[in-house]
Amino acid sequence: MRSFLLKRLPSGLVVLLAASFAVFLMLRLIPGDPATTLAGPDASPAAIAAIRARLGLDEPLAAQYLHWLGQVLTGDLGPSYAIGGQVSGLIGDGIAATAQLTLAALLLVVVLAVPVALLGASAGRRPWAGALRALTTGALAVPPFVTGVLLVGVFAVSLRLLPAGGYASLGDAPDLAVQYLALPALCLALPSAAILARYLQDGLERALAEDYVRTATALGVSRRRILWRHALPNALPSAVTVLGLQVGQLVAGAVVVERIFAWPGLGQLVEQGVQRRDYPVVQDLLLLVVAGYVTVQLLTDLAYSWLDPRVRAL
Amino acid sequence: MGAQIDFTPALLFAQSANVLVQRLVFNTLTRYDDQLRPQPELASSWEVAPDGLSVRLKLREDVTFHSGRRFTADDVVFAVKNLQNPVRSAQLRSTALTVTDFRRNGDFDLTLVLAHPVSNLFDLFEFMIIADPASVEDAVAGTRLIGTGPFTFTDRKPGSSLSFARNEKYWNPGRPYLDGVEIKVIPQAETLLSSLKTGQTHLSYAVRGKDVATLRSDRRFRITQYDTGSGAFYIGANLAYPEVQDRRVRQAIAWAIDRDRLVEQALGGYATVSAVPWPKSSPAYREQDAAHYRHDPAKARELLKEAGVGQLSLPLAHSAEAGSAAVAQVLQYDLKQVGIDVQLQPVDSPTMQKQLIAQSMPALWTLSHGFAQLHPATLAVSAYPFNEAKNTSRFSSPAYTDVVQRAWNRADSDSPAAKALYQQVTDVLLEEQFIIDLAIAGLVEVAGERARGATLNKFGYLNLDDAYLAG
Amino acid sequence: MTVLSVPFAGALRRPVRNRYVAGLLTWRGVSGLALVGLVALAGLLAPVLSGADPNAQGPEALAGPSGAHPLGTDDLGRDLLSRVLHGIGTDLTIILTAVPAGAVAGAALALLAGTSRAADLVVQRLFDLVLSFPGLILGLAVTAVLGPGRWPVVIVIALAEVPYFGRQLRAGVLVQREREYALAARVGGAGRARVLLRHVLPNAVDPLVVQGAVALSVGVFIEGALSFLGLGVRPPEPTLGSLISGAVAYLDTAPLLAAAPLGVTAALVLGFTLIAESLNRGVRG
């Protein structure tokens, strides 16, 4: 186990280093610069030069890069350029908001997908099985930004049941937070729920077509019992794999959903950061995202190697 | 309150995209009424010397900062010096720099000595917020805002909201009525609209004209247009490009645009067609100038022919945001009708700003400019597109510089002599067309049925002293 | 943005054409093909189906359906039918450029990985790097550097698909390489590259075909999302995504403006999804 970790850890660090370089360079390649953005539309060259000096942007790029790496390694990320406040605070708040959103969406994915799949599988060849399929396919075919606007139109503007957008922290005001959370989480969850439902239903149908099921049916075991006791346990593992893949998609989808619902999460923060050329915020945030991904990869590999000793030998 | 763009603390002392905070937490020395006559705020009275070389200010004596400290003449001295600091990048820095000395006649009595007379001195007093000197660095970092205004700053969630609570010791008796204010940052236009429709937000100045048009028939909203002239849509021409160096080509562009359709379709009808930068409230405004260029494709083609231009192909930069894209597409279509092919170049605002300042815009660009709502000289010395010394168009002419300087370097701003100078400025602008003005949009206030009594100053600073929520 | 990753069960090789055809000849396959075919045909015949110039503006803005404008006009007085039809063309060109480009790049990298252990390591880390940026954040970055436009959209879609194609193929190659025929070929003296290209690749290509159909539907979504964020194809060129996001403000007042492009997008995505599912079932047997 330890030797496995020793083998994989360096490659993770290589990815991180490469990512830090890519992120740093990419930001510098974006036209426009933080000083002119900060200086405002009618700034004098003197004002811009003063701001550049204050931000350390007059130093050579290599020095700026090393300085940044130093900050990351010491954990002192410093203040943001344009958004205001400390970078660590901004990113922390962003993570909290996005985590709430994606976790709620994940919960909704499961809550929506499993019953639909079970219903669909138990429906067999009855006509409404087709209707259920059409429903999940429909959820797949509508872009999230349209779903979002429609949800707001129906639940917020017409029915006035839920707020149209905004954010409250679960820690501060749980009841309010749930209200704010409902629509964006639903909007984010729908496409993934549709995918999961389709996989699960496929898996269930395949399991139901197996010989042992036919035997069990012949023996008089009820269809419901077969579904729950035999088909579901068989179809579940691959569905869990799909669900795992969807987590990444939820985080990615959050960019659009956060914009529609004015949800101050990581997606909004990156967008704001790029738009205002707030280098520290974007750099640190993207690096953190990469680090998160690398860690998850490492843990998955570790789990596999634990389950399957053959991998360890590789 | 719904805002579309988050507050940028570093631009607190400059005119920026979000100016809702300034007059909530801070006060200014004076405030213009509808006729551009200054009214007292922190300054209770004032006297400009006959030679225009100094101004004596009497200050209110009953004002305290949110920190509890008393407001005195020293705070005004600091405020002027603060604006002179290039790092604050205040647009009225040129005017602030004409203040060369301060004579303190008492704790609440101050004389500002000027290098030369300036006609837009009270623009400065309208613009300059009085902040607690000790907390200014915290203020531009966005952590602590300490002023004398009706509300105290309590919390900021970057990218999400700003919160304010009632200032119990406000100098204006009984004010403000509201217990607190929350400014929500809602970047997506549709969401802002929904937020207003659901009553989550009571007031916004950030609704696009196109969206306001969809609310017009809705009885739940009161829509007010402010003649702040804060957003004048224009086409800029960069004279570094030979294609637009001939002023007849630029005039042809001015004739080619159907401004009425632009206002109706791209701006939802919430703007006034105008060929000059000045709004109606400006002393420089004249109706015949505003109507100088109308939609006349034949005349445009004729001018192009005169200039010896057959087919012309030009890039046009515009902001990538949906509203500007609509404006740009209308311009593109109208210009195509007179034989000018335009390639649209959407750019985001930092890139635009950099190009604006670095004078590296493409041959044509479209944006909106402010600063025409004040004394006309402010535009030509403070707004970058028009700045006589250095502007984005790379336009310069001794005649323009001369007339602008004469209009600025005088103590009076309303006399016939001053107006004659403004007319000369207008004539140069109309003739040269390095900035082709299209339409002037004031700020549009969308208020839910309960919100009452909000006002804006000439810079769009939100004043909620008298605001309340009805029933 | 939604990405379907189809878990692929490597099957023994059977006549390829039959399995694809068999997959496509189910009700899923046929309806998928019909949907995509119909939409594509409408896009191809745009100039015939609507005489109006998609970019010609007029005084009648947001007008309802009429003889001159069968679907009405948009906010700048442009013919909606013509814009939707031409929008189909733009979208199809974009995804049909981007997805094959992504597939080829991904496949090339995967084959490169098959040549040596060191190359494999580098390529794997490269895929990790791209995958570690959520799709739209990649989009934000690319368009911020290049500015909005048609090519950046193509690049974002292609880039987002590279690791998916690459990983699928790499996994397939690993499995196939150890099979008897490949070992036999190598023992028979065939070069490493030759074995890879002539023997292993054709057998590992099945999942790529399925992934291709999935990627096409994802491409439509990415284009839409980029347009929504203001980073899509430059105006005035119509795309399905820009038409939808431009119409969102008028959902109450002029619902047809959003419904028309939305219907077409849904049909297209649905079609690609059905094709992907039918192909997947076909190759799985």
TrEMBL record, chain A:
Instruction: Identify its membrane topology class.
Output: Multi-pass membrane protein
Q: Which SUPFAM superfamilies match?
A: MetI-like (SSF161098)
The ABC transmembrane type-1 domain sits at 95-300
> Which Pfam families does the record match to this protein?
BPD_transp_1 (PF00528), BPD_transp_1_N (PF19300)
**Molecular functions per Gene Ontology:** dipeptide transmembrane transporter activity
Protein's cellular compartments = Cell membrane
Q: Which PANTHER family does the record associate with it?
A: DIPEPTIDE TRANSPORT SYSTEM PERMEASE PROTEIN DPPB-RELATED
Protein name as catalogued:
Peptide ABC transporter permease
Native source species:
Kitasatospora cheerisanensis KCTC 2395
From TrEMBL, chain B:
Which cellular component, as a GO term, is one annotated location? periplasmic space
Sequence ranges assigned to domain Solute-binding protein family in this UniProt record: 38-360
Question: Is DNA-binding given among the entry's keywords?
Answer: no
Top-level taxon in the UniProt lineage: Bacteria
GO MF term list: peptide transmembrane transporter activity
Q: Which GO terms describe its biological process?
A: peptide transport
Keyword check for Iron: no
Alphabetically list the UniProt keywords. Answer: Signal, Transport
**Per its UniProt record, what PANTHER family does this chain match?**
OLIGOPEPTIDE-BINDING PROTEIN APPA, PERIPLASMIC BINDING COMPONENT OF ABC TRANSPORTER
Instruction: Give the protein family.
Output: Belongs to the bacterial solute-binding protein 5 family.
Could you tell me what this protein is called? Peptide ABC transporter substrate-binding protein
Source organism of the structure? Kitasatospora cheerisanensis KCTC 2395
From TrEMBL, chain C:
Residues of the ABC transmembrane type-1 domain: 88-276
InterPro entries linked to this entry: BP-dependent_transpt_permease, MetI-like, MetI-like_sf
Q: How does it sit in the membrane?
A: Multi-pass membrane protein
Could you list the residue ranges that cross the membrane?
20-45, 92-114, 126-145, 208-233, 253-276
Q: Which UniProt keywords apply?
A: Cell membrane, Membrane, Transmembrane, Transmembrane helix, Transport
Q: Which GO terms describe its cellular component?
A: plasma membrane
Q: State its location(s).
A: Cell membrane
Look up the domain of life of the source.
Bacteria
Query: Which stretches are annotated as coiled coil?
Result: none
The Gene Ontology biological process annotation of the record reads: transmembrane transport
Stored PROSITE patterns: ABC_TM1
Similarity comment: Belongs to the binding-protein-dependent transport system permease family.
- Name this protein carries in UniProt: Peptide ABC transporter permease
